[in-house]
Amino acid sequence: MGENRERDRAFLLDEIESELRSTCGMTGRESLSPQVAQALLKVPRHAFVPREVEWAAYRNMALPIGHRQTISQPFVVALMTDLLDPGPDDVVLEVGTGSGYQAAVLSCLVKQVYSLEIVGELAVLAQERLQRLGFVNVEVREGDGCLGWAEHAPYDSIIVTAAAARIPKALIEQLRPGGAIVAPLGEPQATQDLVVLRKDENGRIRERFVLPVVFVPLRDA
To answer: Hey, which of 58, 77, 153, 157 has its CA 20 to 30 A from 200?
Structure first.
């Protein structure tokens, strides 16, 4: 079974790389960094989905995880991670833990991940799952992602895995100068824009459109 799972992850990575090549005109990325590719091969996506959809864990598609939430399409997880340009000494904030899969991928690449999830049951399950699987440099807390997690700021980068019309002010304030936020911007129940926002040394924000995406809405308390 383990060999089959490894083969499934390798096939999925090939599919992600193929989609990157076909979208490179928009994203500017023809392939993933070797580090991000290795992280995707390492993380067992089947362990982050409900048993009833485990058969589809290595298909390049979003899947339901309960509470009207989803685990994102692997291509989108890979692209958003790559756009962050994560480094081994980075401290990253994730808004929207969900099942914990995105946090697990990031944990293979950075020093520490702090992750906020507004649905209490999902937060508890994700923390237990991540600890059980050995992703020990991730801390999950139930909380309003729109407020960020000021205790551990400033962050080298922030990833938002739910859509909002604009980036909450608190997240911009908690991002260090030179850092980046990757997030979907747009109205719920519609196609949004995946964007990269970079904060310069003077605190100014530059925004770059990447490609259209569809995410569940960012909820506040």
So the answer is: 77
Task: Tell me the C-alpha distance between 83 and 118, whole Å.
Answer: 25
CB atoms within 10 A of CB 158: 29
Residues 6 or more apart whose Cβ sits within 8 Å of residue 52: none
Which residues span the domain enclosing 131?
2-213
Tell me if 218 is assigned to some domain. Answer: no
| Alpha carbon distance 58, 11 (integer Å) | 8
Omega before 86 cis (within 30°)?
Answer: no
Residue 68: what pLDDT? Answer: 86
33 is catalytic: no
Q: Which residues contact 28 (CB under 8 A, 6 or more apart)?
A: none
Low-confidence ranges of the chain (pLDDT < 50): none
Domain with residue 172: its CATH number is 3.40.50.150
Looking at residue 203, its pLDDT comes to 87
Q: Rounded to the nearest 5 degrees, what angle is found at the Cα of 206, between the Cα atoms of 200 and 207?
A: 145
User: Which of the residues 22, 31, 72, 115 is marked catalytic?
Assistant: 72
Q: What is the model's pLDDT at position 94?
A: 98
Q: Looking at the 3D structure of the chain, how many domains does it have?
A: 1
The whole-angstrom separation of Cα 99 and Cα 154 is 25
pLDDT at 1: 56
Tens of pLDDT along 66-122? 998 999 999 999 999 999 999 999 999 999 999 999 999 999 999 999 999 999 999
Q: Is the pTM of this model over 0.90?
A: yes
